[in-house]
Amino acid sequence: MSAVEEKLAELGLTLPEVVPPLASYQPAVQSGVYVYTSGQLPMVEGKLPVTGKVGAEVTADEAKELARTCALNALAAVKSVTGDLDRIARVVKVVGFVASAADFTGQPGVVNGASELLGEVLGDKGVHARSAVGVAVLPLDAPVEVEVQVELVQ
User: Fold this and answer.
1) pTM for this one?
2) Where are the alpha helices (DSSP H) in the chain?
3) Residue 22: its pLDDT value, please?
4) Which residues are CB-neighbours of 56 under 8 A, at least 6 positions away?
């Protein structure tokens, strides 16, 4: 077990199976020393635990937890390409998409769920640049989607 997976276990988390693609793409690809994940939905055992817009059917706190799940799914996607999460030198960028009710403006707080999980698991290597974007709708009516870019140890 890698040090990163040991840290996940310490936090009471396990790395899930990679979420299978919903269309024609790969969950993650490596280019040089970087791994780019596709947008990760908050799938748990192949299902979305909740659907809808944040600020309407889904609370900001629920969405923040879902963003954590997205980040965990992103780590699984990274491992599927690298074979070992200990190869992560740092998280470079996180982009979070939040399906938002018309008057919802708390996207940064929602995406903090992903950012905080990466920090808890990877420490200083989890500090990253980030965008938090409100959108009208996401695939399968998911409330949140997160993509991650990591740099690998050379």
Assistant:
1) 0.97
2) 3-10, 60-82, 107-122
3) 85
4) 101, 104
β partners of residue 36? 29, 149
Do residues 77 and 146 make contact, with C-beta atoms less than 8 angstroms apart? no
Strands 88-99 and 129-135 turn out to be parallel
| Phi and psi torsions of 91, nearest 5° | -85, 125
Q: What is the mean pLDDT of the chain?
A: 97
> Per residue in 54-83, is it b (16+ CB within 10 Å) or e — as a string?
bbeebebebbbbbbbbbbbbbbbbbbebbe
The tokens for 108 are 């940064």
Task: State residue 36's pLDDT score.
Answer: 98
Q: Please check whether residue 51 is in contact with residue 80, taking contact to mean a CB–CB distance below 8 angstroms.
A: no
Could you report the per-residue pLDDT of 95-143, keeping only the tens digit for each? 999 999 999 999 999 999 999 999 999 999 999 999 999 999 999 999 9
Structure tokens at 134: 């409100």
Tell me the mean pLDDT in the region 36-63.
Answer: 97
Instruction: Report how far residue 98's alpha carbon sits from residue 142's, in angstroms, rounded to the nearest whole number.
Output: 9
> What's the rounded Cα separation, in Å, for the pair 104 and 63?
12
Overall residue count recorded for the chain in this entry: 154
